[in-house]
Amino acid sequence: MKLSRRSFLGWSGAVATALAAGCQRLRTVADVGEATYEAEVPPQGLEGWVASVCQQCTGGCGILVRTITGIEDGKKRAVKIEGNPYHPISRGTLCPKGVAGLQALYDPDRIKGPLKRSGPRGSGQWVSIGWDEALAMTADRLRDLRARGDAHTLVAIAGQVRGLMPALLQRFLGAYGSPNYVSTASGCETSRQLMRFTQGLDEPIAYDLERASYVLAFGAGLLEAGWSPVRQVRAFAHLRQGTPGRRARVVHVDPRLSVSAAKADEWVPIRPGTDGALALGIAHVIVSEGLYDKAFVDERTFGFEDWRDAAGPARLGFKSLVLAEYRPEAMAAITGVPIATIVRVAREFAAARPALALGGSGASLHSNGLYNRLAIQALNALVGSVEAPGGTTAQRRPPVAPMPPVRRDAVAGRGLAMPRLDGAGTDRAALAASAVHVLSEGLRTGKPYPPGALLLYYANPAYSSPGFARAPELFEQIPFIVSFSPFMDETTRHADLVLPDHTYLERWQDDPVEAVWGSPVLGLRQPAVEPRHQTRHTGDVIIQLARALGGAVAEAFPWKDFPDLLRAAFQGVAEARRGLIMTTPFEEARQRRQAEAGFWIPSYKTFDEFWSQIAERGGWWDPADLPRDPTEAFRTPSGKYEFFCLGLGLGLEHPARRAPARRGADPGTIPEAALTALGVAARGDKVFLPHYEPPRFTGDPKEFPLHLITYKPMALMGSRTANQPWLAEIPAGGPAGAWEAWVEINPETAHRLGLHDRDSVWVESPAGKVRLRARLTAGVHPDVAAVPYGGGHEAGGRWAEAWGANPNRVVADESDRAAGAPALMATRVRITKV
Amino acid sequence: MRRGAVMLAGALFLLFGWAATAVAGEQPIAFNHKAHVSKGLDCAICHRYVREQAFASLPTLQTCLMCHAAKISQNPEEGKIREFAAKNEPLRWVRLYRLAPNAAAYFSHRRHVTLGKIECATCHGPMAERTTPPLKALVSFSMDFCLDCHQQKQITTACVACHR
Known about the structure:
Radius of gyration of chain A: 27 Å
Low-confidence stretches of chain B: 15-24
Largest interface: A-B, 15 and 15 residues
Number of strands of chain A: 32
Structural class of chain B: mainly alpha
Oligomer: heterodimer
Number of domains of chain A: 5
Number of domains of chain B: 1
Helix content of chain A: 25-40%
Largest sheet of chain A: 7 strands, mixed
Low-confidence stretches of chain A: 20-27, 656-664
Largest sheet of chain B: none
Mean pLDDT of chain A: 89
Strand content of chain B: under 5%
């Protein structure tokens, strides 16, 4: 066949078009080199290391950033991130997110300076403005709002942040006069309440994993994402192989065979939402066979036996309840876990001391989350693993100097008396401090009042909160939106003004770790390089805004800038005369010995010495702060660990009253109407005790036969890491590959539905639908469809937008109304071929 | 003389043969092994100490009550469990599997099950298939029975290993 020129051109045209289309994705992948320091080829220069703290997730790992300072231009460039060997959490190691942090710094799609919207909202039309203009605009709007008597309509949505920054933002709202500081970290509400009601503490729960002999994990991503991935992985390694001759046993309860379950000794598949039932079945065996720690239960717990309150009537104890209602046979029917497994695991758990039961998001993110966690924690109390080595404890906070009290003016006083927009403390979210999932409802109805302005800090609710992800047009209800995000994410797209923050590698900050093993750890985050763009530390911006507003608001912010505040806070630590600046394990051991003997020998004489040592080594912590004295550890009304949570009644009946009950208070009974409004099925004394609340799911089981559960692979953290291609390249350790999102289905279920591996499917719930690739795996319960979370961005950068689907689009609005947490695992779905 | 021999044989049989043919009375509950095994319950759930101790143990009333505290089947025998519980009477099972007491032989379940990895049915017979309690042991334990396996698997056959 002769190839004419025309046909040749025609063919090559067609081929080129096809190649171009097919190569779109390939080209995106090939662009990866741009997002790393390779774009800035470091010249000859001097190497340096800067100690700092990663912020790619909540882990709080200490890092060392390797920098090269060019000899000719004197400019410092960050070229590599490694773990800081002095930092007790990372000890020189790091997870993939930590190493990929350079891609946040060098992200080519970062916002490079303040932006003002120049077209309609969401159109992506922006004009660059200077900081003075941006600050003046913001201050003017906020001043107007206040002058009109609408100070309470200012809303701040902040994400998973801790330490001085959220404190500063809350202080700003307090001085300004708004009660509406809304945290998107609502998944952690349940853990907080667990500690509040069983131990009377306001501190998060922490697990002494390293010393446990038996770990029973319910729905916890021990080796994936979690509250501190690197620390968890190291703890797991230690409890398996760290001590010669000792190897702890790990049993993982989860509807899917996660990496954690695969590396455990045993995977117990369970129906979603029934973790509490399993825990109670195990408790039944432990109690009925007398395997519990009688000394601990008698001396350190309240509410195990039936008791009489001051008024006289008999009240139910945990023992009677568990023996009467939670037989293994009945629990096997509810959970799908065989009777033999329940009995065997119970006996193993009680025999191995110390044993540790822990609950993760798989147990918490259901409509019965609070009671699931109470049941799981009851197991620890039964075997004496509360405030004991190898058990649970409370995470202590470092002794930073407190900020001076705020003097509130009349405007602030009036504003703070107004109800919250997110329903926290009402019967939509009775016990919660924040409820972002209810906020979207409030915006829809305009009740109790319409919002006036929104500040966004470290949060992207249009991606991470289902109510907003499904209906981002809700942001149109808010007349003025300011985002501090350095990235043009889904929510920032709807802003009127962007005042971009530095990335974590460019700023000063404190990092008090939230939940490790109890000892307080305070890392110092410091700039590894000069800011690359015209960004500004949000701490500085808040101080400047407060100054611009004048009056009592300005008075509440006496610091020059954020680093000034930071030094003042660290002064408290220097003066506390305890702990040590992070150092080698040998020095730590020596300091621990000294502390045990009652000595404390400082390594510094002045605060400046302290500060320069901290800056060199990365932070401070107190390894000698071990499990506490019971009088400090249990501050409940009874002074003990409470099976029967005396304070719970007060919280549920009068949600707005959050103070814990006085010592020895009569818990009374909770009116039926209150319980119905909260969606609590139990009545009578059961409400105060760990019990099984049947989980609620959205979706008719006949139309939506499968449960949707979502999980976070270690490499993906939602929005912070969205535009980092190194992370999207990492498969989740499961059935699928990189750069794509999938849904895991059991092969039997798939066969019934006529689906094959790698089919394109619709995953549809009553709330919406999303398109994914089906991956068949026996490692998922037949009634469950599992979808990873982290892809499917519609904004945020060229790599963020290149792949995946966001399962939050189909997650419905079910919640645990008592705890005030969203029930992200409570949606039913159906799967059909595309 | 012959009658004496017969009487002696009879006496000897009664004395020594007794062990091999244990006679059991009725068990307090007509326990159905097959029904329970088919629900996924393995032997160690009720014979609790089989992996940890010498004596495997027979189930206590507490063990049965873990599931049967309320009525969960149509079998009238089940009600007896709750009657015993109400009267606070322990379950007195009739033990079928014994070694001859005068043999002075020491047997450890832990060694055989956990270390030796022997299945229960190997020595106790197909108990899992039974729907009613057998009247006598399904397998008779003679010293040959033990030694056959010991020799095959090259485990000690020294006298003092078992006859302590």
